[in-house]
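note to self: dont lose this again. the chain is below, predicted strucutre after it. 270 aa total, dont forget to put it in the shared folder this time
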Amino acid sequence: MATDSSFPQSIEASVPERSHSETKEKAQGSSLIDFLESLLVTILLVLFGTTFVVQAFKIPSQSMEPTLLVGDHLLVNKFIFEGSGAWYEKLLPYRPVRRGDIIVFRFPYDDHAHYVKRVIGLPGDRIRITDQQLYINESTVPEAYAYHDLAAYDPLSENFPPAGHFAAMGLRPEWAGQIKNYVHDGELVVPPNHYFVMGDNRNSSLDSRYWGFVDRRAIIGRPILVYWSVRATAGDYADRSLLGSLRGISGALFHLPSETRWHRLLRFVR
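---
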């Protein structure tokens, strides 16, 4: 009788144990599904953000000094400029590109690297530089941001456009063959839907003087914030291969405390 009575007790004891196991498996499966859903939503939000709102870039050259330094890491607002032709421009608070805006854009030649420069000329503007003084539409333009390094002489920072011999001035061959079509009465006329840009470091900047205009479709956005800055040189960013990028990231992380320019963190770009 003891054996008989113990048998159903063992059965009853095994039932809740199996039910607990099934519940645990269901909970694990539900957690996995929740995790995958959260991961998918996060990926979609990141893709949406980097496509439409903000994107991170770093400064690899001295062309925008002293406004932006080599090693500055920027957040770029892609949710700002109208004129790309996208359907959502009419629904969102976009604005036109303005003279003086710092922009990030795709370089028109080679591997289409990202460049950062300041907008100097808008479509239709007539531009010339005489003795380092910028004139737009025959009016002088004050440039508090412009820097002229006496140790790095650049004839095109003194006078522009050049008076002939374009190729000899170091212009990109494609631009040397085109620039004469835009020069009238000693002034460079910016064509429709294009912009003339220059670096703030006028004697150390390869910009529109040397390779031409920026197409509106190539403009990505406007830098708004230096979220991190590390002491670096242009040589540190010369290798843009995957291996070079990984080497740069690892080096920056290794020297994070000592090489970070803490005073530049969270600085707004103007």
